[in-house]
Amino acid sequence: MTEKIAKEPVLTLPLILLAISHAVTDLSQGALPVLLPFLKTAFNLTYAQVGIIVMAQNVTSSVIQPAFGYVADRLSLPWLIPAGVLLSGIGVAVTGLVGSYSTLLAIVIITGLGVSAFHPQGSKSAHFVSASSRRGQSMSVFSVGGNFGMALGTIFMGLLLTFPGGMGNTIWFLLPAGVTALLVWLNLPRVSPPPAAAAAGKKDQPRAPLPVFLLTVLLAFILVRTTIQAGLTTFIPLYYVNYLGGSPVYAGYLLSAFMMAGVVGTFVGGTLSDKFGRKTLIVGSMLISWPLLALFQFTSGFVTVVLAAVTGFTLIASFSPLLVLAQEIMPGYEAMAAGLTIGFSIGLGGIGVTVLGYVADHFGVPSVFSVISVLPAGTIALAMLLPGGWFRRDNAPAS
């Protein structure tokens, strides 16, 4: 059995389909930041109102994910995967067509619900179609789909905004969502098979008590780390377009460099965590990112593009190890673990962006980057409390 698992390819059809559906679902997550400067101008918004849009997206797409995860751990809901893909695509498709700020917020909430429905079930499915010895690498493939989708969303939205029709071109987001949802639906039994015990007709084993302290530390870490990431993706375009008066195209390059490098970082981080341990990768990611975050206000031109790419690679490299670590310390709660780590605490990070919006309104946009540059100190302190050894593969805590 061990030899069979070792020879089993990582890129199986179910995992590939899950990664593609993750990418298409998260197109909306990457598209909105590029659209924000245009929405700010169209509706004459304050920075705080822009922050509310981001918070609405993050809260509805993330905070309620544990509820979906709780249900998905107890019921068979594989249809949430294609349904989430389709709903998120419909939401972002009509975002550029709305005529009022209140309607815009309602559409953002609808989009977020699609994202929230997809992630717990999708992550749970990715966990169970993966070999246990390579879950870091397999989850990195699934996560790369999401990060690639966010990065592609920035590029796709940026291109659409340059075509005749402007914001009305968001309707084209319906195409990838519809095609992908249909493809996943036709392959649903393979994409989301039942757990082995259920397939064999066995009763579920009693679930171990939740490790409350470790889970709290992990969620606090993700909250702060997500505030950093969401703060950068939100305020990089606003800083270079609205504050410095730069080109929206240049701001799009910066955001795309950040997100595309994050795609590579996600795969590298998840793969190396199988070899060196989740904790090693998580702490190392933040240690390297810390000095990079302090440089954004002091660079320009191509140097800033390079800086954005390197920062995205190092910061987002911790994503897959965090998700797998949560699932390892919560056996029997795999969907809920995903809902908490890539959902609940990330949604709370949207509240952090709202606070950053308040800082920008009262102290100027550059002050946002000053605040972001000191946040890694808190994440490093929290990461030191996480379970696992240094430079070894025994990631899961002892039972």
Task: Give a short summary of the structure.
The chain has 399 residues and is an all-alpha fold.
Structure description:
Helix 2 runs parallel beside helix 8 and helix 5 packs parallel to helix 7. The chain is mainly alpha-helical and 399 residues long. It has a single domain, classed as Growth Hormone, Chain: A. 76% of the residues lie in helices and 0% in strands. The chain is built from 19 helices and no strands. It starts with a helix and ends in a 16-residue tail after the last helix. The N terminus is likely disordered. It comes from Anaeroselena agilis. This is MFS transporter. Keywords: Membrane, Transmembrane, Transmembrane helix, Transport. Its main location: membrane.
Task: Compile the SSE list and pairings.
Elements: H1 2-7, H2 13-25, H3 27-43, H4 47-63, H5 65-72, H6 80-95, H7 101-128, H8 135-162, H9 174-186, H10 188-191, H11 196-199, H12 212-243, H13 248-276, H14 278-293, H15 301-316, H16 319-328, H17 334-363, H18 365-372, H19 376-383
Helix pairs in contact: 2-6, 2-7, 2-8, 2-9, 3-4, 3-6, 3-8, 3-12, 4-7, 4-17, 5-7, 5-17, 6-7, 6-9, 7-17, 8-13, 8-16, 12-13, 12-17, 12-18, 12-19, 13-14, 13-15, 14-15, 14-16, 14-19, 16-17, 17-18
Please tell me what the overall shape is: globular
**CATH class descriptor:** Mainly Alpha
- SS strand fraction: under 5%
Which range best describes the helical content: under 10%, 10-25%, 25-40%, 40-55%, 55-70% or over 70%? over 70%
Main pleated-sheet profile = none
Index terms:
mainly alpha; Growth Hormone, Chain: A; 399 residues; single chain; disordered N terminus
